[in-house]
Amino acid sequence: MAKKEERDIVILNERIALGESRRLDFSIAKLYTATKVEIPIIIERSKIPGPTVLITAAIHGDEINGVEIVRQLIARKFNKPKRGTIICIPILNVFGFLNGDRSFPDGRDLNRVFPGTKSGSLASRVAYHFTKKILPHADYCLDFHTGGASRFNAPQIRIKRGNERLLELAKVFNAPFTVYSNTIEKSYRITCQKMDIPILLFEGGKSRESNKHIVKEGVDGVLRFLDHLDMLGKRFIAPKPTEKTVVIEKSKWIRAQKSGLLHVKVECNKLVEKGELLATITDPYGKMRFKVSSPHEGYIINVNQSPIVNQGDAIFHISTLNTLGTENEETED
């Protein structure tokens, strides 16, 4: 029996029985116009007891792919479980979403202030109430992100090295890649770790963009995850993966050796050979053309899609099996 397998659950002072559907408004603060800002929470409970899965997106307000993934889960009724409970929060950082910004209006990154404080910054207060009032009900968490700025992430699940339980669940989700990634202090992911709640962090695409291929990978992975827990509705069938997830144990950044215009020559996801042309960097005047080649064989799991780069900018993230690689240095969460 799941540890949170209660017949009734109380969230934000609302009692929700087995078999009930409910939308709650998680309200922490108002805009300076005195307008309420509410975070909708969509809760679906089966009549049959079972585990509780918490699904979140847009901890960073400009990461749209995750919002669309959770929206589709709700719109297509995938969030109505055969047993147990599914809690969906499509937009956790409504403040950032309204502004098209990663952070809160106070400049704080919500994913760097967990578990938060009751009397701290606005972001810290949201993290605190979320951690105290919603997160304790979860048996499993799925959290959806994208690459920041112009960096496009291949669809991937990030987990901590050495956690066999998470590795098993990542293989069930079966994103194209599973990347070992260190947890960051004061992140949502490390808070779940300390509370012994398994969490899979999905990364795919880039901020301020909705990519249908990334969204499909996310939705399909959730269906496989729910099916594994025997929670997927009887009229739905989890898609079978065509290939197994590729586990990336080590990786490194390829950085720009010149400043200039970036012309990318390979797609994200691709397995490249040592010496393969990845990009060229040119000046605006037709005098300089610098070739960027792969230092070794590996999968490209992140591509900088900015048309202009400065010397030292990260332009490709590539897997590696040699000792030169390090655990994923990509800014996660």
From TrEMBL:
Task: Spell out the PANTHER family in the cross-references.
Answer: BLL3975 PROTEIN (PTHR37326), SUCCINYLGLUTAMATE DESUCCINYLASE_ASPARTOACYLASE FAMILY PROTEIN (PTHR37326:SF2)
Alphabetic keyword roster = Hydrolase, Metal-binding, Zinc
Q: Mind telling me which residue stretches traverse the membrane in this protein? A: none
The name on file for this protein is: Succinylglutamate desuccinylase/Aspartoacylase catalytic domain-containing protein
- Gene3D superfamilies (alphabetical): Zn peptidases
Keyword Translocase set for record: no
Quote the InterPro entries the UniProt record gives.
AstE_AspA_cat (IPR055438), N-alpha-Ac-DABA-like (IPR043795), N-alpha-Ac-DABA_deacetylase (IPR053138)
The cofactor(s) it depends on are: Zn(2+)
